[in-house]
Amino acid sequence: MSSVTLFAAAQLRGIVDVPGDKSISHRAVIFNAVASGSARITNFLTGADCLSTIACIRALGVDVTQDEDEVHVYGVGLQGLREPSDVLDCGNSGTTLRLLAGLLAGMPIFTVLTGDASLRSRPQRRIVEPLRSLGAQIDGRQAGDRAPLAVRGTAIRGGSYHLPVASAQVKSALLLAGLGGSGPLTLTGRIDSRDHTERMLTAMGLELEITPEQITLHPPTHPVLPYPLSLRVPGDPSSAAFWWVAAAIHPNAELTTPGVCLNPTRTGALDVLRAMGAQIEITNQRSEGSEPVGDVTVRSSVLRGTEIAGDLIPRLIDEIPILAVAAACAEGETVVRDAQELRAKETDRIATVAEGLRALGGHVEPTSDGMKIVGLGGPALRGAQVQSHHDHRLAMAWAVAALIATGETTIADPDSAAVSYPGFWETLTMVQHAP
Ligand SMILES: O=C(O)C1=C[C@@H](OP(=O)(O)O)[C@@H](O)[C@H](O)C1
Ligand SMILES: C=C(OP(=O)(O)O)C(=O)O
């Protein structure tokens, strides 16, 4: 489909089972690939990014079966990955490329990691430099800053690294390299990004010492480690956020997203929506495997502007495009700061969010590390032609805007939503027609 045309919705109602979390789905396959047995993963995200991870792991000689959202991974142990006969295609997925680069840095095989045009334009020095400091032999275009990356697996040293940016991909790449290291690896600095890697590796029997200041990983001393980890993947809060904002900005709405991951490193969007005055109810809070989950209901709300900055940023980085739509419909100004990481995503999301919101009648000023949005004082966007630039989060953010915009909204390249949210467009129709 080259474009989709949408109109405002009369109402939004229903229970939306958002797909499994993308970060946890990637990790469940990658970590279990080097475990000492087989694992069953349910509610796996079948988005294109996680399917890229499965394809790469299979190319490394690991049996992975997939039947809809149920995946079985037959782990080969830390010594068992096979050298692939071709390059590994990570598609659009930064998580796939960066986590695999870290894991493969310490394996006795040669691999080349590449991806689509967007992924090949994203910075990789952030993983290449720290991995090299641990002894990794890794190179790529632009002195190692751009994929394709060539990884000549070698002995990895223990040591320490100070993370300058709060990136879970960098943190995880280093921890995965450390699994094959000759001694403990300590990470300091910005370790406050999503912590699924730490939770899952701990659940797989590895020894991690975690304090607010540092993480130390001890390489496994027994071949039975890591143990396989079967799990049900909780719902993805980054996907649920589209429905939370849709319900908050629409004047006749109530949407519930059950079973969403409520890991505190992921709940920044809920905190911001609450600060903006959104009516949010969280029920049925429980633990699923290593993660807290709960059911989130959001109702029509009157929103006011807020500040999104500092430590909040890593807790909602992927939700900024949809939070910008909420800000455009609020009363007063919203300022996003400290979010220069947005420029290193599938698109430069400071530039592309500002462009799209302006086309829809929003008042947005991009800044070097974020944006200023002067709200329209209510759901007063107007339909327009908007670009998704093949960025899944933009395609879905503009679809939510269309639900309250006047006239018709045409979104180019809507299929990119399937990178993280297969079924998004069907659900968009469903919530408008639920009784
Ligand atoms: O580790 C992960 O699963 C992810 C980390 C984040 O990226 P950074 O590590 O670049 O912040 C996020 O944007 C991405 O969607 C998923
Ligand atoms: C940035 C994202 O993913 P990745 O870095 O894995 O491509 C995203 O899903 O918004």
Automatic annotation (TrEMBL):
Q: Cross-referenced InterPro entries, in alphabetical order? A: Enolpyruvate_Tfrase_dom, Enolpyruvate_Tfrase_sf, EPSP_synthase, EPSP_synthase_CS, RNA3'P_cycl/enolpyr_Trfase_a/b
Q: Which domain of life is it from?
A: Bacteria
> Keywords for this entry?
Amino-acid biosynthesis, Aromatic amino acid biosynthesis, Cytoplasm, Transferase
| Domain Enolpyruvate transferase per the UniProt entry, residue ranges | 10-428
Record-listed phosphoenolpyruvate binding positions: K22, G94, R122, Q169, R349, R393
Question: Which locations, inside or outside the cell, does it occupy?
Answer: Cytoplasm
Specify one Pfam family: EPSP_synthase
A GO CC term assigned to this protein in UniProt = cytoplasm
Specify which residues bind 3-phosphoshikimate according to the UniProt entry for this protein: K22, S23, R27, S167, Q169, D318, K345
- EC assignment: the record states 2.5.1.19
What's an example of a GO molecular-function annotation for this chain?
A: 3-phosphoshikimate 1-carboxyvinyltransferase activity
| Any single GO BP term | amino acid biosynthetic process
SUPFAM superfamilies in the record: EPT/RTPC-like
Active site: residue positions: D318 (proton acceptor)
Give the pathway annotation: Metabolic intermediate biosynthesis; chorismate biosynthesis; chorismate from D-erythrose 4-phosphate and phosphoenolpyruvate: step 6/7
Q: Which reaction does it catalyse?
A: 3-phosphoshikimate + phosphoenolpyruvate = 5-O-(1-carboxyvinyl)-3-phosphoshikimate + phosphate
- Can you state the subunit structure given in the record? Monomer.
Task: State the family named in the UniProt similarity comment for this chain.
Answer: Belongs to the EPSP synthase family.
Described purpose of this protein according to its UniProt entry: Catalyzes the transfer of the enolpyruvyl moiety of phosphoenolpyruvate (PEP) to the 5-hydroxyl of shikimate-3-phosphate (S3P) to produce enolpyruvyl shikimate-3-phosphate and inorganic phosphate.
PANTHER family recorded for this chain? AROM/DEHYDROQUINATE SYNTHASE, PENTAFUNCTIONAL AROM POLYPEPTIDE
Put simply, this protein is called 3-phosphoshikimate 1-carboxyvinyltransferase
Q: Which gene encodes it?
A: aroA
